[in-house]
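cache lookup: miss for this entity combination. No prior model stored, computing from scratch. Input as submitted by user K.M.:
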Amino acid sequence: MIGRAVLVEDPHPPTPDRAPDAASEHPPGAVPRTDDRPSTAPRLTLADREALLELMVGMRTFEERGVALYKQGRTPGSFYDGHGQEAIPVGAAFALGPDDVICSPLIRDMGAHLVRGTDLTEIIRHHLGRDNRLSRGREGNVHFGDPRKGVVGMVSMLPDMFVVAVGMAMAFRLRRERRVALTFFGEGATSPGAWHEAMNFAGLRKEPVVIVCENNGLAYSTPTSAQFAVPPAERAAAYGMPGVVVDGNDVEAVFAVTHAARERALRGDGPTLIEARTMRMHGHGSHDDARYVDPALLEAWRGRDPIATYEATLRGAGVDVDAVRARVLERLDAAVEAALATPLPDPAGATDGLWATDEPVPLGRGDAPWSGFAPAPPEPAAAPEAGR
Amino acid sequence: MSAQGAEVRGAVVPGAGAARQGTLVGAASADGSPAGATRTMTYLQAITDALRVEMRRDERVLVLGEDVGAFGGAFKATEGLFDEFGADRVQDTPIAEAAIIGTSVGAALAGLRPVCEVQFADFVATGFDQLVNVAGKMHWRTGLAVPMVLRLPSGGGFAGGPFHSQNPEAWFMHAPGLKVLAPSTPADAKGLLAAAIRDHNPVCFLEHKHLYRRVKGEVPLGEHVEPFVARTVVAGDELTIVAYGAMLHLAVEAAARFEPGRVEVLDLRSLVPLDEDAILASVRRTGRVLIVDEANETCAAGAQVAALVADRAFSDLDGPVRRLAAPDVPIPFSPGLEEAVLPTADRIAEAARELLAY
């Protein structure tokens, strides 16, 4: 505590040193379990559940390969992964319809891009700085989105894209469209003023926005105890919206609360703040060994790995988990090979395209793999009437 | 530009007194428009007219900002719009510039054409991130267009003090992806604002508060758009004065103190894009240039003009590139202090005299 010795008469004494026991402030046991799910949980078929697993495995497998490519020096800049947080982007995006938008998937949300159907080879080209239609090499790592899939790429200043998502939702409301905007951000992003402004706008105007706060306990090296006095979900009420805490390591729970939040928004009742509690299992990025994290805390959370637990559940339900992994690996190998064979962008194009010169193209529709969005089976054809 | 300049020569006529006395009345021509009907409007009325016409023309256009609804805005620029277009298209917002600008970015991405009013241009600093990091970079990064306009009531001259008098246009000039406009006449205020609304990019529209009710001119009725180019307002052969916004009127007043045909006055109108061809063509012909900014001197729009001239018209110059701008201090409140920092017609004329004698 710098300066404590000269502050003996300070009328505002410094706060006591933070408890060093990080596990006590971010314990996995504090996360509500599945009994907190909405009572009207939407139905997931076995095929849906297998898809959820495949998407989470897809995210992790891609990111493990991404770390390797970065450490091999093949990926310029930096690489970030969301190891252990796969259930949040996958579960949340799985609840979205094709016309909904994501603004924006952030640093731990690769799975949301996979749910929406963004081309994996294009994503890898983007990471490698190769020519690609997501960013044309102008952006790297997690800064991308596929407008053709209704996804807007993030910026580094957080939670700027939350504010933008509220504006997109406003447009949907004004046009009486039946769609929502979903935004992601971490718990650290609840500190800047822009977060308050966006929460206030969204709550005041009842915008159809679904707000997913990923509380993984750490903003780079800063624990939640040094970030805020009141957890994000508790603050939601102050903005006129419900705050829901969900186990961020339970993909079906995340799906269920997101589905409920989307339904609420579509009814015109406004936004919901979902605080998905999880743990950042790796460093902030591949450059960060995260030695500041208590190993006991990581060990406690490792036993709650969202993929391992879900895999065990689905294996018991008869899903061929090995086949899921084999499919994921086959797609990834092919995508990496294609991406590595792609040239770098032409340097001559670095300055073009600053200005939009054509009428803007509307955002496209994303994949919506949940069976609940599948078109209803056609009615049996009526027998032709006599005389026709 | 020369043909256009000939058409508008003398379009801005200084009034009988100095601008500071509040008597400056310009008579803008309906340049470029067919022989359609015009009406005499103030600069402020022309802005309202542009909003009204564009909102009638395109239902995607909406206005949002603090107090812009039934109240009609702090300067009454949106007066009457709430009654005509309703609360969805003329939205009162909380006091939150980051959210006003940021939700406008989102609305633009979703297919609307928001026009946000920042109550005073000075306040844009609180929403700066959404403008320079989100809106400005969006198209280059992602290919997504952000068609939105930020109306920024700017400028001093009326004892507004350090937080209600700034000319922050150079902030935006330095951020790639933002267009920056600064009209000086009612007809341009309407035509440039309408063109900004139709543009597919984020546009910062610097409307000078001190011109709102002090400048009147003929404004084309109905649809009226102006291109983002400079305009020769006064023709001359021996010196070019480059100015924009409120300074344009002082430059014209200063030019009138010399024999007709000696001093040319070029109104930039658009700072991004900057009409380099018009600047260079004028300076190459006159051989002398004086650049006037109301903004703080360092890295102001005029510095960019000076660099352009030094780089590409050096061999055509008969004298040094001269600049007049506010010194690098905040704009003071007390009238005498404010007068001491803002350029005046007297100082412009004095600098012009020195250059002509060089």
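stored under new cache key. The radius of gyration of chain B is 19 Å.
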